[in-house]
């Protein structure tokens, strides 16, 4: 039976943040060039950078410099990732008061990533939400390792639901769940999203997938099928893991746009412009990206390149 | 709502045929080595080769030599692709009487591929089915360009249904639909499969997807969701298109196994062994393959390599 899908999905472009954070740092100018290419695709929401320790993430050390240029694209809604109240203050001061506060649902990943327990991380939501609300912004809590933790194994869905509920109670404006290690698959995706929505009611729940094991777009499709209308994606699939060479990073924006639009789900993003942006991204990082579509082209471009026995 | 999926899916391994047909020809010995690695994965159905013109497809020139060794793996069910009655006779003579007869649903692709119209190709089903039935085998008709043709654009679903009906009437034992150029997406996949099943009743309908634009596994998942239990996949994702360098080929067997098993759908294939087979495939062709999972490893192997900010 043909599934009923929402008429439109809003894609947040995270290439400048999740995509570049594991790359050798690129210049602010190069990021602005990529932003120029992204702006013409029609994407509206852009995660611009992360206000985190420049020692821990050198690729994001120019967060303030980049934020200072955001005014050039008044049509875009910028947000930034933060890992604590300090980052939230920096974001507000830099004029990007809409933040994603990322915390882990799994103890092992939380300790490894921020040397802080999960409950302590959840508690910080209150302070962060207050800071950004005072600054006129919003606080989205992204729950990392929402399906699996590389250290602790599968994350119990009820734990994610509990964390999401706490975060909302502490002031978070919305929730997103992230498949940090790229191990989620469709049935578990739907299982968690159904539970979250049952508990959170009207609160918006977004999703963030990696394509590390090839299942990223299948998970995104399953999420949309289950009613999710807020998805993260990264231009060109930028964002591989430095500890798994050649492994895919985030799902590629242009591949997600292709799939959704072909399924009758609007994204507001022009596919050709998105493919062009992926070429700029490749140029900026100086190596091939994992997006197949950025190389194969969209459907309209297939004819000259086609052979095909079957 | 968590989807109801079939308890098990049968994967046909097509790496030796679709995977290798566009590669520089590899030795029969190398193919046998890959077959050794595949045999221990637990896969049961293997498309061994194609009985087609060695001039057109040099990589399949050793079809008879390969078939002569098939007896070494009595636990495997071998089949072979044919493009006409001559190939069917060769297949039967070589002891591989179970054939896939591939024909195009689109005129443009049919002419470009076999210099024959679609209706003429469909008519040949009768002769081919008779040849293989007389030889104690079966005839599966694979309808290529079932969703899109690189020359003619989208293929009308009703045309595919009509062709499938004719093929069955002419003696085909079952039908498979192939996304030859890797442009299908889930909703169109389900739309065609639903129509086919409505018209063909109990006849088995399989599906064959390419991952060229990243949507291959999403299509496979959608197909399984809609009730398909016969899927093709290729070890390591072997099988890129020579005219689109870097573009993915077939969906990767190990990625499909990972996704399905994690969704509770049995495949009978051991994931670790499948990843090992992908390493052999890479070695055999002498270049990196597109399967992300074969590089990232399965879930159990993630811990040491994990980092992950989100």
Automatic annotation (TrEMBL), chains A, B:
- Which GO BP terms apply? ketone body biosynthetic process; L-leucine catabolic process
On the tree of life, the source organism's domain of life is Bacteria
The family this protein is said to belong to: Belongs to the HMG-CoA lyase family.
Q: Which SUPFAM superfamilies match?
A: Aldolase
Q: Which UniProt keywords apply?
A: Lyase, Metal-binding
PANTHER family associated with the record: HYDROXYMETHYLGLUTARYL-COA LYASE
Database matches in Gene3D superfamilies: Aldolase class I (3.20.20.70)
The name this protein carries in UniProt is: Hydroxymethylglutaryl-CoA lyase
NCBIfam families from the UniProt entry: PRK05692.1
Lineage of producing organism = Bacteria, Bacillati, Actinomycetota, Actinomycetes, Mycobacteriales
Start and end residues of each Pyruvate carboxyltransferase domain: 9-275
Nucleotide-binding among keywords: no
Against InterPro entries, the record matches this protein to:
Aldolase_TIM, HMGL, PYR_CT
What GO MF terms are annotated? Answer: hydroxymethylglutaryl-CoA lyase activity; metal ion binding
User: Could you tell me which PROSITE patterns the record lists for this protein?
Assistant: PYR_CT
């Amino acid at each position: 039976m043909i599934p009923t899908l929402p008429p439109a999905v809003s894609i947040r472009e995270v290439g400048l943040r999740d995509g570049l954070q594991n790359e050798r740092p690129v210049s602010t100018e190069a990021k602005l060039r990529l932003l120029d290419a992204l702006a013409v695709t029609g994407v509206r929401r852009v995660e611009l950078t992360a206000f985190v320790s420049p020692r821990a993430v050198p690729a994001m050390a120019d967060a303030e410099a980049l934020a200072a240029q955001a005014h050039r694209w008044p049509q875009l809604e910028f947000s930034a990732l933060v890992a604590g109240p300090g980052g939230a203050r920096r974001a507000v001061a830099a004029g990007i008061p809409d933040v994603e506060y990322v915390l882990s649902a799994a103890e092992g990943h939380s300790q490894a990533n921020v040397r802080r327990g999960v409950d302590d991380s959840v508690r910080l939501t209150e302070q962060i939400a207050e800071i950004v609300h005072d600054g006129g912004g919003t606080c989205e809590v992204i729950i990392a390792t929402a399906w699996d933790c590389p250290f602790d194994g599968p994350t119990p869905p009820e734990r994610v639901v509990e964390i999401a509920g706490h975060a909302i109670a502490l002031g978070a404006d919305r929730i997103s769940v992230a498949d940090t290690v790229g191990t989620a698959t469709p049935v578990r995706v739907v299982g968690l999203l159904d539970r979250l929505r049952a508990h959170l009611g009207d609160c918006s729940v977004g999703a963030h997938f990696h394509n590390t094991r090839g299942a990223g777009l299948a998970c995104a499709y399953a999420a949309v099928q289950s009613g999710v209308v807020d998805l993260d994606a990264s231009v060109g699939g930028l964002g591989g893991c430095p500890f798994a060479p050649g492994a895919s990073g985030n799902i590629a924006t242009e591949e997600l746009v292709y799939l959704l639009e072909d399924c009758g789900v609007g994204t507001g993003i022009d596919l050709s412009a998105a493919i062009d942006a992926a070429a700029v991204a490749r140029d900026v990082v100086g190596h091939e990206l994992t997006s197949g579509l950025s190389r194969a082209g969209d459907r309209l471009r297939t004819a000259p390149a086609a052979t095909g026995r079957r």
